[in-house]
Amino acid sequence: MSGPNLHRLQIFQIVYEMQNISAASRKLGLAQPTLSRHLAVLEKELGFELFLNVGGRIEPTWEAQRLYEETAGLFERVAQVEKSVEAIRIGAQSSLRVITSSALALEVVPAAIGEIYQKMPELDLVLEGGGQRAQIEALRCNAADIAVGGVLENPTGLRQTVLGKFPVVAVMKADHPLAIHDCFDLASLEHHASIMQNPKAPIGAFIFAELARRGITPKRYISAYTLPFSVSLARHMDLCTVTDFFSAKALKDDTIVIKPLSDPLYLELVTLEPASAGRKRGVAEFKAALKRALQRQLRG
């Protein structure tokens, strides 16, 4: 036999307490025939009678009295469960600790966090920036739930998820000699001084590896160990820089231009989580929001 319907049990409780069909109908906002029909269905589900009509009045059976005692407090417990479910849904007493690379801290991650905040307003959010080494350390010592950045080779003990990719671009002053071209040829770095990224960081290592693969040796360059710094230097110096799309877009103004590469290069956006960690809803929601934010930013 399937279990009794909770709504009908609630109707039974009200009728039992008031022992009057009309009064119970008014309290529940139901028509009397509807209420009587619910009781009849409940009796059929249970397999025994609940009320007897005695001289125009209803009287509960012994079985009804026992059922009422057994269900006492049931709906208070159900209401408490509903409150708990709502608390879980909005993130109460839960946290999301994110550590992100500087490139993604400017646009993509804040957009994803904004979406999560709307969906789970009680979630305790903790955000910080850090390079790959800091990210790995934070994840392994349980100081972060998820890291956002570039691909990690041999992510031992970590779960790596690729959410998408974004382009590498060139940035320069609007009056730079190379600004007249629609696209930027990496070979131009052999003839024009530039600002280069940290070769030990994921984006810098990727760019230097591509230059080496193509046999390109940059002319004299300045090293910038943070991505926003490279864009700002390009703004104030007659130099070009090769960086990620999001850093360039976030820091762009009328004095600089962003050029796609003539031979496109793409960086992968990945998330890292401890492999042994349980699957938290906040982390899953954040990853989904991050993927949507990436797609929106690229379209925009």
Automatic annotation (TrEMBL):
Protein name, entry field: DNA-binding transcriptional regulator, LysR family
Organism expressing this protein natively: Thalassovita litoralis
An example molecular function term from Gene Ontology annotations: sequence-specific DNA binding
GO biological process annotation, one example: positive regulation of gene expression
TM annotation in the entry: none
Keywords per UniProt: DNA-binding, Transcription, Transcription regulation
Pfam families reported in the protein's UniProt record: HTH_1, LysR_substrate
Residue intervals of the HTH lysR-type domain: 4-61
